[in-house]
Design a protein that fits this description.
The complex is a heterodimer of chains A (162) and B (354). Chain A has 162 residues and is an alpha+beta fold. Helices cover 29% and strands 45% of the residues of chain A. In chain A, the strands form 2 sheets. Chain A has a 5-stranded antiparallel beta sheet with strand order 2-3-1-4-5, covered by helices on one side. A 4-stranded antiparallel beta sheet of chain A has the order 7-8-6-9, covered by helices on one side. In chain A, helix 1 packs antiparallel against helix 2. Chain A is elongated. Chain B is globular. Chain B folds into 2 domains: 179 residues, Rossmann fold (3-Layer(aba) Sandwich); 148 residues, Dihydrodipicolinate Reductase, domain 2, CATH 3.30.360. The longest helix of chain B has 21 residues. In chain B, helix 2 packs antiparallel against helix 3. Classes of the chains: A alpha+beta (162), B alpha/beta (354). The interface between A and B is medium-sized, with 19 and 24 residues. Strand 9 of chain A pairs parallel with strand 11 of chain B.
Chain lengths: 162, 354
């Protein structure tokens, strides 16, 4: 069966090879790979391949999860099979000064921060930061808990999307 | 009084009209709005329902108008506007609690502003009305948020009726809609924009780049915000309404302490700008599911994205699906619509006209 997968991963050397390895290792025959670097600090990779059955696909997904490669969308024979949910947050506070890298990394342990925009009027003022986070449907609660914990710790006002 | 007189022919053919006697407790903005609408619509009520609505008493803090044949509503309104209510021929030095207990009436309209923490003086008024066998219609949130289940049980025990449509969402008929028309549904969640003042402020900030302080000042100048708008801004008013919805529609047995409340005081213009750029508005949302009041990102195309002083309430139900009601959450005339909806329901249910 033909699989089209959209993967999201951090933009670091060697990441793409690491992501493709589980596919070929579990008998996937890769047809095409395209990637774009349009996200902040992340790349989006479209990969099409053929596998013999469902269990091979399951093994590949498991392996990708282990490698911290985020599967954003899967189509099987051209039909939607799985898609991630996208959430938006605005954080208001001293978001930059309180180690924004740490904030992103911690959210990334559950989901993937795929977009970020910062508005800061002056270094002393509070900044406003919008984050788009992609998550599995089932990690909705976990990511919310994580974001709320970070905001409480770092004294941010959190605005969740409805 | 407009539309007051029936022609002799009408008097001759109509059977004797049932009189529904009202005691109005609290003659501020809401109380006057109710009497203005009553004066305007008395004839319509007669023709549509066959009831004559009569005001037997109007209670103020320092005394009351009492007339067993009916207080002249127009002169009461006129004198109240001139701050000369004490000059009214029906003025008596009688306190509201005595009036509620002693004056013969079918329905007590409890329209005082309340203390959110204690529920008073409304709580005492409502208890006294029920104890003396009178039904109650109220716009007062505080007693309901404080003691909903106690009051409900007392009304049932005394076999009287209790209407509180006007406590949430002003003119929006959310509570009666649920009770009368959604009986087969289980309501899974309710969320909404329940405070007009904060919504007005957020709209002004979003659309005109005004600071919160300037937007608030404008709201006060327009008479939208109270002199003390603290509860509107810090989310408490929304939380109180959330508690009423949670208890009356979802039977959640919750109180104000169970709501996590974040207001709009820390919303910056930058955050609004950022939200707008990404297709969102920022709204103060009350969410019964999570028992939370907080500013949220609401998609510009979302039904809850209502502007100005409008309120909007969404019900997520298992059979009817999602329902959204949008309307004026405040205003004396708009709120009177909900108060009369309760009065007419009680009158139709046969609780009046002895």
């Amino acid at each position: 069966m033909k699989i089209d997968m959209v993967l999201r991963m951090r933009d670091v050397p060697g990441m793409l090879v690491k992501a493709l390895d589980p596919i070929s290792r579990h008998g996937g025959n890769i047809i095409s790979v395209t990637h774009s670097r349009d996200e902040v600090d992340a790349v989006s990779v479209n990969v099409s391949f053929k596998v013999k059955d469902q269990s091979s696909l399951d093994l590949i997904r498991k392996e990708l999860a282990k490698q911290r490669v985020h599967v954003f969308r899967i189509e099987v024979e051209g039909r939607k099979y799985y898609t991630k949910k996208s959430l938006s947050y605005i954080l208001i506070g001293h978001v930059i000064d309180t180690d924004i890298r740490d904030t992103i990394d911690r959210i990334n342990t559950i989901g993937l921060v795929s977009g970020i925009e910062v508005v800061m009027t002056s270094p002393k003022q509070k900044s406003s930061v919008l984050m788009d986070v992609e998550i599995d449907e089932k990690s909705d609660g976990a990511v919310r808990e994580m974001v709320e914990k970070i905001c409480a710790e770092k004294s941010f006002l959190l605005l969740r999307s409805l | 009084m407009r539309g007051e007189k029936l022609s002799p022919a009408e008097v001759a053919v109509k059977p004797k009209m049932k009189t529904v006697k009202l005691i109005v407790v609290g003659f501020g903005t809401i109380g006057r709005g109710v009497l203005e609408v009553l004066s305007e619509k008395r004839r319509l009520v007669r023709e549509r329902y066959g009831f004559d609505l009569q005001v037997s008493a109007v209670c103020e803090i320092d005394g009351s108008l009492i007339n067993h044949q009916g207080v002249n509503v127009d002169s009461a309104l006129r004198l109240a506007a001139a701050k000369k209510l004490r000059d009214h021929p029906d003025w008596k030095q009688k306190k509201s609690l005595e009036v509620i207990r002693e004056v013969d009436a079918d329905i007590v309209l409890e329209l005082t502003p309340g203390n959110i923490r204690t529920g008073e003086p409304g709580l005492g008024h409502i208890r006294a009305a029920f104890e003396s066998g009178k039904s109650v219609v109220t716009s007062n949130k505080s007693p309901l948020a404080k003691s909903f289940y106690e009051l409900k049980a007392l009304a049932e025990k005394k076999r009287v009726l209790f209407g509180y449509e006007a406590t949430v969402g002003g003119a929006i008929p959310i509570i009666n809609l649920y009770r009368d028309n959604l009986g087969i549904n289980v309501v899974r969640s309710i969320y909404g924009i329940l405070n007009g003042t904060s919504n007005f402020i957020l709209t002004k900030m979003f659309e005109e780049d005004l600071s919160l302080a300037t937007a608030l000042k404008e709201a006060q100048e327009l008479g939208i915000a109270e002199t003390d708008p603290a509860y509107d801004i810090d989310g408490t008013d929304t939380a109180v309404k959330l508690v009423i919805l949670a208890n009356s529609i979802m039977d959640r047995h919750v109180s104000l302490e169970d709501v996590s409340v974040t207001g709009i005081e820390d919303i910056t213009l930058e955050s609004l700008e950022l939200a707008k750029k990404h297709g969102f508005a920022i709204k103060l949302v009350g969410d019964v599911g999570s028992m939370e009041v907080s500013p949220r990102l609401v998609h510009l195309s979302h039904p809850l994205n209502v502007s100005g002083t409008l309120n909007a309430i969404m019900l997520d139900t298992d059979v009817a699906g999602t329902l959204t009601l949008v309307g004026h959450g405040a205003g004396k005339i708009e709120t009177a619509s909900s108060i009369f909806s309760d009065i007419l329901n009680i009158a139709k249910a046969g609780g009046c006209g002895k």
